C-alpha cells in the first residue's frame, strides 16, 4: 500500500508547499519577488532529468514493437519517421503558431491523461469496466494540468501562449491572448474540471483501488490549485509524467521503490543521444532570438520543441498502450 499511495501523497505534499509559498507575498514580499525566477527551475531541470529524456528512446521502443526478434533493423526507419513528424510540427509552428499552440494543448491533454490511465489501469483493471470510464478518466486527469492553471493563474497562461507564438516574429504581436484571462473562459475551464471529475467518479466502480485513483486525482487538483502555473506544470511534466513513463519503460509497473540506480543509469545512457540532439536543436532555435530575450521567451521556444516531439511520442505510446491491451474490450 505504501508504494501505491506514494504518488498522491507526494502530490498532496507539494500542494501544501505551494500553498505556503502563495502566502509569502503577505509576509516576505522581497523574498517572494526574487522567487519569480525560480519558477523556471523545473523546466530547466526537465532538460536532463525525466522531462525531455523520457521520450528519447521512442525509436528503439517502436523498433521492438515492429519486430521483437530483430529490432535493430527497424531503429533507423522508425527514427526517420519520428523525425519527419517532428519536422511537420515545427513547420506548423512556423506557419500557424496559434493553431500549433492550441494543438499542443489538445495533444498534451490526451497524452498526459493516457499516461495516468495506464498506471491506474495496470494497477487495477477492474476500476475501468467500460470504454466510457477510461475516456472520462483520460479527459479528467489530462485536463487537470491544462485547465486548472487557466483557472487560478490565467496571466501566466496568457504570457506563455504569447511567448510560444510570438518569438518567431521577433516579438511582434501576432495574436491577442487576453481572452484567456476573461471570466467566461475561466468559468468554462472550471466547469469542465468539475464535470469531468464527477463523471469519472460516477463511472468508476467502488473499491479500494478506485478510491486510490480518486485520492490521486484530488491530490493533483490540490497541487494545481496551490501552485502558480509555470512551476506547477513544469514539476508535473518532470517528476510525475516523465518519471512515471521512465518506470513504465523499465517494466517495473506501479512500484517506484523497486526502480534501482542501475536501471536509472541504464535508461539515461540509452536516452542520452536523442536528448542531446534535442538540446542542440533547442540551442539552435534559441540562437535565433536576441540575447536579451526574457526567460519566458526561451520557455516558449522549449514548449515549441516539446510539442513537436509530443506528437510522434504520443503515437509510440498509443502503440504501447494497444500492445498492452489497454483499449481492448472485455
Query: What structural class do the secondary elements suggest?
Result: mainly alpha
The end-to-end distance, rounded to whole angstroms, is 27 Å
Poorly predicted residue ranges: 1-5, 24-34, 252-257
Indicate the overall shape. Answer: globular
The average pLDDT is 82
Number of helices: 14
Helix content: over 70%
- Strands, count: 0
Largest sheet: none
SSE sequence, one letter per element:
HHHHHHHHHHHHHH
Summarize this entry quickly.
By secondary structure, the chain is mainly α.
Question: How would the blueprint of this fold be written?
Answer:
Blueprint: H1 2-22, H2 24-27, H3 29-34, H4 41-46, H5 58-66, H6 75-95, H7 97-123, H8 131-152, H9 154-166, H10 183-203, H11 208-226, H12 229-249, H13 261-286, H14 295-324
Helix pairs in contact: 1-11, 5-6, 5-14, 6-7, 6-14, 7-8, 7-9, 7-12, 7-14, 8-9, 8-10, 8-11, 8-12, 9-14, 13-14
Question: Could you walk me through the main structural features you see in this protein, from its secondary elements to its overall organization?
Answer:
With 330 residues, this protein is mostly helical. The protein has one domain (56-322). Helix content is 75%, strand content 0%. The chain contains 14 helices and no strands. The chain has helices at residues 2-22, 24-27, 29-34, 41-46, 58-66, 75-95, 97-123, 131-152, 154-166, 183-203, 208-226, 229-249, 261-286, 295-324. Helix 1 runs parallel beside helix 11, helix 5 packs across helix 6 and helix 8 runs parallel beside helix 11 (208-226). Residues 1-5, 24-34 and 252-257 have low confidence and may be disordered.
Amino acid at each position: 500500500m505504501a508504494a501505491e499511495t506514494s504518488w498522491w501523497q507526494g502530490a498532496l505534499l507539494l500542494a501544501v508547499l505551494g500553498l505556503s509559498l502563495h502566502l509569502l507575498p503577505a509576509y516576505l514580499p522581497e523574498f517572494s519577488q526574487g522567487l519569480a525566477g525560480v519558477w523556471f527551475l523545473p523546466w530547466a531541470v526537465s532538460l536532463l532529468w525525466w522531462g525531455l529524456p523520457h521520450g528519447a528512446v521512442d525509436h528503439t521502443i517502436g523498433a521492438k514493437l515492429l519486430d521483437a526478434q530483430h529490432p535493430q533493423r527497424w531503429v533507423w526507419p522508425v527514427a526517420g519517421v519520428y523525425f519527419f513528424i517532428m519536422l511537420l510540427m515545427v513547420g506548423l509552428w512556423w506557419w500557424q503558431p496559434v493553431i500549433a499552440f492550441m494543438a499542443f494543448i489538445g495533444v498534451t491533454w490526451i497524452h498526459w491523461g493516457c499516461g495516468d490511465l495506464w498506471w491506474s489501469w495496470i494497477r487495477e483493471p477492474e476500476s475501468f469496466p467500460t470504454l466510457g470510464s477510461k475516456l472520462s478518466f483520460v479527459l479528467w486527469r489530462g485536463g487537470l494540468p491544462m485547465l486548472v492553471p487557466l483557472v487560478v493563474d490565467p496571466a501566466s497562461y496568457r504570457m506563455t501562449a504569447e511567448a510560444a507564438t510570438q518569438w518567431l516574429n521577433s516579438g511582434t504581436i501576432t495574436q491577442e491572448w487576453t481572452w484567456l484571462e476573461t471570466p467566461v473562459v475561466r468559468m468554462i475551464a472550471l466547469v469542465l474540471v468539475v464535470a469531468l471529475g464527477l463523471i469519472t467518479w460516477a463511472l468508476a466502480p467502488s473499491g479500494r483501488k478506485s478510491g486510490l485513483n480518486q485520492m490521486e486525482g484530488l491530490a493533483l487538483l490540490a497541487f494545481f490549485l496551490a501552485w502558480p502555473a509555470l512551476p506547477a506544470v513544469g514539476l508535473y511534466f518532470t517528476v510525475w509524467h516523465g518519471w512515471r513513463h521512465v518506470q513504465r519503460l523499465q517494466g517495473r509497473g506501479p512500484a517506484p521503490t523497486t526502480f534501482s540506480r542501475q536501471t536509472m543509469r541504464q535508461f539515461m545512457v540509452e536516452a542520452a543521444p536523442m536528448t542531446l540532439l534535442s538540446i542542440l536543436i533547442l540551442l539552435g532555435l534559441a540562437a535565433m532570438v536576441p540575447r536579451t530575450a526574457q526567460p519566458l521567451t526561451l520557455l516558449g521556444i522549449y514548449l515549441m520543441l516539446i510539442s513537436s516531439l509530443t506528437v510522434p511520442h504520443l503515437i509510440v505510446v498509443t502503440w504501447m498502450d494497444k500492445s498492452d491491451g489497454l483499449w481492448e474490450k472485455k
